[in-house]
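#struct-help
A.M.: can someone run this one for me? Single chain, 379 residues.
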Amino acid sequence: MVGDATLGCCSVGHDIFDFSDILLKLESGLLKQLGQFSDTSIKIIISEVVKNELLNHLEEKPKSLYTDIGRFLKDAQIHCQFEGDIDYIKRLLFQGRKPEEIAYNRLENFIETTSIEIIQAQGNVEVFELLNKYFKNESPFAGTGKKKNEFPDAMALMSLESWAEKNGKKVLVISEDSDWKQYCTDSQNLVLIKSLSECFELFQQAKPYNICRQLSEKYYQGELTLMKDAITSALEDKFYELNFYIEASSPYQYEDEITNVRHKQNELKIIKEPNIIFRPIHFDNDTLVVEAKSSIDISVECTFYFTTWDSIDKEEVAIGTNTIEKEQNLDVTVLLTLIDESEKFDEEIEVNEIEITTTEIRIYFDCVEPDWRDESDDD
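D.P.: on it. Structure tokens below:
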């Protein structure tokens, strides 16, 4: 186990901060697991820049919901003769809070629960050094592209670097960004790790490692049938929680609607050689949280509604529909909460909870067009 360490919890994309849906779910998934460090010698830090970017992204969803709900209710007044008080319903849903307040409270609660320390840019970033890196194209400033977009990256990294030097610490920085990787490679204080789950693994003791190894062996020997059935059942129940995105080409404008999703089979995949399929995330006597990757075969039924532009009437005109079924193999990541009251994890293991941490699923259809067949063709 790594003790008395510092975790720089950061995530960025190419040139600008990129917070995926998984990083906006502060109360579940991997981010929830950060709470295990709150009363330990392991310190979690994020830069002021990353915090502000995260807050901006947390505000986007409730803002769009606030607008969309109002619009849908107004449509309901017209088309469904809805006579309710729209403002009252919005106050009920949002509990009298503005979207900005909701996002701020969520983030502050998360910071308090996980005992995160915010590293300020002021006092940690020297303007001269920042500009010097910019003009010399030093990481994280790339030699090409819009370098001005990389100023937040530079300020975040330099803040962590300064904090590490002042406190005599090594900081584990979590990011998949190539510029961040280069910066950490050149640094004596920052060590880059690609994923949060890999970072959690570093902080586990020997016992959860051994349990994961034993469970992996049993899985391949066909001894974890009940666990596999529980995972299959949970995945079927949670499919509709996923964000499915349909991608297709067509000579016509279209709207798509997923009408059915069927799960066919799934198999857990190797995370680490040799044949390790469970990664320890958090262990507490009779409870073990592990990460696993599952290969799933599904069938997706999607209905496409096609329109074309009527140049005479100056409007979009419906020209037909088509319902198409597509089979596809998906890789999804799941968090399994396993419980064994005997604390041995060798016989009576209960799958207490399953979370799908993969939030975006893309289904690829080929070229689609209306079903031109006449109804009489089916007779």
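A.M.: thanks! Residues 10-21 have pLDDT under 50 and may be disordered.
D.P.: also worth noting: The CA atoms of residues 269 and 293 lie 5 Å apart.
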